[in-house]
């Protein structure tokens, strides 16, 4: 079974600064997908960024980028120019496509607070 | 238009009651899920349906019964509610095969059993 670990329960950053959230995972698979989801106080789960394991290039979405290290099984999220609206719980998630049923396996989450 | 909508958003009920949560997606996705988020915010899958067929049933008490009348709907019925069932329940959908796999979530239903 796959596991996902987020070792930072809480982090804080000043507005306009850069912050990196860590995520490691354990799998014996070669093809899979990794995601970062954001959950603000509104409770809505919002996809931030997605990475296919077969792609060497790191995914980027505006101020959000990942550092995907497949051999190290590491998938960190970098948020540049942090904004107050980035305050949320961030979840790292793993998924492998399989006919027996694909599922998202989530990490424990990192609560990020952006301070003015 | 809301992509994945679930109702109700809040549900407060007494122990022993039976309740249902409804979910609908208008994205044309082939797979729908129920996830449970506990008091520590940990998210865990409960059920997965692919084209109305139950694919994943993840060690959930049989008081929980999902029902998928069609590809766009996945409802969750809970019998004999217990205090420990209090949690936030999320419905989600994705297009796994031939799609980009990402899951879209509903806004969650906060269930409180008193």
- The first-to-last residue Cα distance of chain A is 41 Å
| Estimated share of beta-strand residues of chain A | over 45%
Task: State the major sheet of chain B.
Answer: 7 strands, mixed
Q: What is the count of helical runs of chain A? A: 0
Q: Could you tell me the number of beta strands of chain A?
A: 12
- What is the overall shape of chain B? globular
Order of helices and strands of chain A: EEEEEEEEEEEE
SSE class of chain B: mainly beta
Low-confidence sequence ranges of chain A: none
Largest sheet of chain A: 6 strands, mixed
Order of helices and strands of chain B: EEEEEEEEEEE
Q: Mind telling me the C-alpha Rg of chain A?
A: 14 Å
Tell me the total number of β-strands of chain B.
11
Q: N- to C-terminal separation of chain B?
A: 34 Å
Our Rg estimate of chain B from Cα atoms comes to 13 Å
**Roughly what fraction of the amino acids of chain B lie in strands?**
over 45%
Please bin the fraction of helical residues of chain B: under 10%
Helix content of chain A: under 10%
Secondary structure category of chain A? mainly beta
Mean pLDDT of chain B: 93
Shape of chain A: globular
Please, could you describe this protein's structure?
The complex is a heterodimer of chains A (116) and B (114). With 116 residues, chain A is mainly β. Helices cover 0% and strands 50% of the residues of chain A. Chain A contains no helices and twelve strands. Chain A starts with a strand and ends with a strand. With 114 residues, chain B is mainly beta. The mean pLDDT of chain B is 93. The interface between A and B is medium-sized, with 24 and 29 residues.
Can you summarize this structure?
The complex is a heterodimer of chains A (about 120) and B (about 110). Chain A has about 120 residues and is mainly beta.
Features:
heterodimer, A: 116 residues, four-stranded antiparallel sheet, 12 strands, 50% strand, globular, B: 114 residues, mainly beta, 11 strands
């Amino acid at each position: 079974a796959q596991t996902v670990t987020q070792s930072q329960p809480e982090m804080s950053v000043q507005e306009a600064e850069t912050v990196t959230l860590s995520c490691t995972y354990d799998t014996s698979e070669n093809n899979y997908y990794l995601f970062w989801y954001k959950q603000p106080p509104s409770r809505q789960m919002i996809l931030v960024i997605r990475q296919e394991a077969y792609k060497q290039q790191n995914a980027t979405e505006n101020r959000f980028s990942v550092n995907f290290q497949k051999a190290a099984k590491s998938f960190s999220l970098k948020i540049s120019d942090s904004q107050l609206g980035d305050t949320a719980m961030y979840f790292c998630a793993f998924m492998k496509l399989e006919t027996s049923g694909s599922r998202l396996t989530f990490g424990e989450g990192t609560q990020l607070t952006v301070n003015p | 238009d809301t992509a994945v909508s679930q109702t109700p958003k809040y549900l407060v009920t007494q122990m022993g009651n039976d309740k249902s949560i409804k979910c609908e997606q208008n994205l044309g996705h082939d797979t729908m899920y129920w996830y449970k988020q506990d008091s520590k915010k940990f998210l865990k899958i409960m059920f997965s349906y692919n084209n109305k067929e139950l694919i994943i049933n993840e060690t959930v008490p049989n008081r929980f019964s999902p029902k998928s009348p069609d590809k766009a709907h996945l409802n969750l019925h809970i019998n004999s509610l217990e205090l420990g069932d209090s949690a936030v329940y999320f419905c989600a959908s994705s297009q796994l095969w031939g799609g980009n796999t990402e899951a879209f979530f509903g806004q969650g239903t906060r269930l409180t059993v008193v």
